[in-house]
Amino acid sequence: MGTSGTELGELADDRPLLGRTSTAERVADILRTRIAEGYFPPGERLSEDAIAKALAVSRNTLREAFRLLTHERLLVHELNRGVFVRVLAVGDVEDIYRTRRLIECAVVRGLDGPPFPVDGLEKAVSEGEQAAREEIWKGVSTANIHFHRELVALAGSARTDELMRGVLAELRLAFHVVDDPRGLHEPYLVRNRQLLESLKSGDREGTERMLAEYLDDSRERLVAVYAGLVADEGTESG
Q1: Using CA atoms, how far apart are residues 62 and 147, in angstroms rounded to an integer?
Q2: Are 66 and 46 in contact (CB under 8 A)?
Q3: CA distance linking residue 172 with residue 174, whole number of Å
Q4: C-alpha–C-alpha distance, residues 67 and 22, integer Å
Q5: 136: which DSSP letter?
Q6: Which DSSP helix (H) or strand (E) runs through 84?
Q7: Which of 52, 63, 106, 213 is the one with CA 20 to 30 A from 95?
Q8: Inter-residue contact 48 to 94 (CB < 8 Å)
Q9: CB 20 within 8 A of CB 26
Q10: 83 three-state secondary structure
Q11: Which of 38, 43, 54 lies closest to 5, judged by CA?
């Protein structure tokens, strides 16, 4: 199913974000955010004409943005067919979690002595809990992503922040395939709170162990669900 004219009208609302000096990087930022939000779901073909018109950018600018996002593994170019939002393989999901484990656990391990600056983590946890009370499960997912970005931000490294942003954007491609966001994300509300409280107590080693177990459990849970969904889609299309 393609993106409707109404939805592309919403994309046009992002036009002011391009500023006075439109660049491929800014276009890529907009599309990256929209992909992460599920506006363009995995497997969807991106219409060059419609998106260029909605954002009022040239085709050359848009094509460069597509190239940037293809390099980030969010898009894939298929010869004679066009550009599509990437559908992750199960192996991709497993590799993303291996990468997350390396990054996130290393950040916690490398923290200086307490107290740790946890205000951003506190805000993300509160946002997730509020979204759950309102049964806005997409909001729970977004808050969870914010939590892990804030966790990595404790390293104070722009390079690590950028790497994590790409990893989490790619991971959300898998989240959008799962049709039970509550079942997928709700269990980690409590665990995010536990990680926060552990950091607030100054227990760096305990937090790292807890985080490693958390990520292993999350990987196993998502892979089990995702593998079944990808297999089902392959059967239906075959």
Answers
A1: 31
A2: yes
A3: 5
A4: 16
A5: -
A6: strand 82-85
A7: 63
A8: no
A9: no
A10: strand
A11: 54
Tell me phi and psi for residue 13, to 5 degrees: -65, -20
Count of positions (residues) in the chain: 238
- Residue 78: beta bridge partners? 82
Q: Do the beta carbons of residue 211 and residue 196 sit within 8 Å?
A: no
Q: Strand order in 82-85's β-sheet?
A: 45-46, 82-85, 75-78
Amino acid at 138: K
Q: Which two tokens stand for residue 152?
A: 């990595």
The structure's pTM equals 0.82
Consecutive 10-residue runs of the chain (238 residues): their mean pLDDT?
A: 66 68 82 89 94 93 95 94 95 96 97 94 97 93 94 96 92 90 91 97 96 96 90 48
Q: Mind giving me the DSSP string for 21-44?
A: S--HHHHHHHHHHHHHTTSS-TTP
